[in-house]
Write a structure and sequence with these properties.
The protein is mainly alpha-helical. The chain contains twelve helices and no strands.
Length: 371
Amino acid sequence: MARGSMSQPSSPIKTRHPERNSIAIDDDDVIEKRETRSDASSATLLEMEVADGHQKSDYLDLEKQPGDGSRSRNRLKNTRARLTLWMTLNTVATIAIVFTNKAIFDDPSFRKSQVAFATFHLFITALTLYILSRPLFSLFVPSPMRLRLMLPLATTMCLNVIFQNLSLTYSSITFYQIARILFTPMVALINFLFYQKSMPRNAVYTLIPMCLGVFIISYYEPKSTHHPEAEQTSMLSVFLALTSVCIGSVYTVWIASYQRKYEMNGFQLLFNQAPIGGVLLMILIPWTDTLPTVQMVPVNKWMLVLLSGGLAALINLSQFFIIAGAGAVSSTVVGHVKTCAIVALGWAISKRPVTDRSAFGVILAITSIVM
């Protein structure tokens, strides 16, 4: 699973109030969260947008604390060093998981095991969150919810993860990552149509070149005549990518709704979803997947599968420290860096010339997300 792992960073723990029925969604928050997710993450998927309500942690307020100035400066310096380390680990892990999952799905044995692979990632996520909730770490306090309340969200999460993996399987890495940029305008559209939430005019203007860039890539990518060794993206790839964007956008909006309605942070919500989603997908495996024969798969492929699970766990952990330590804005910046890096590396690996007609669409889309 694929853009990936599904990281839901934690915000300050709040008391849940199920009796609250109103859902107030701030579209700017949702869009900011979507931009953070534009990193691939894709692919594992396990990277969820939960910047709502996140606040900077206390340790970044050291500049305001009275006392020994030298000691405070040293503590602040150490804190910043740790935060930089987590940002670096998150960026490297997110980029690595996209290319790792792509290498796994290139093996015919795993192309027909999409549901099983998604199940593996969801259980890895659940296990990671369970460990983080234990007294040794105490990063969040679990907040159980009723099964009937979580089923719709968990089902949408499963579809999101599967279609992200399918999109990565049948697309070039560059197209896969660029298509995910559409999450931002799609989330904005859903908020406008169903929640009557509008965007500032300047923000709307930045979405126009973003959509135009993706459209150009979607049109020229299947027609590409670049280097014969480079990957070809078919109309099926475009369909899977756009379907993934639509499902992922609905999931993003619902995440925000659940967090506001039940006053849960990202870790608490994902800890409820992941086990349910894993069980749902596990039931489907006999009817949907053709599992690979263990003896027929090279050892290095199984090592990649284990690496993918480890990277997913690292993304979940590091994303928490980034959001908690630096806030949603810094997390968004990290997301932009990851998107640009994945697109650039994907283009280089595909051996495509800079003169390829899709290049203009790539440049237009990338420019729009940093405007």
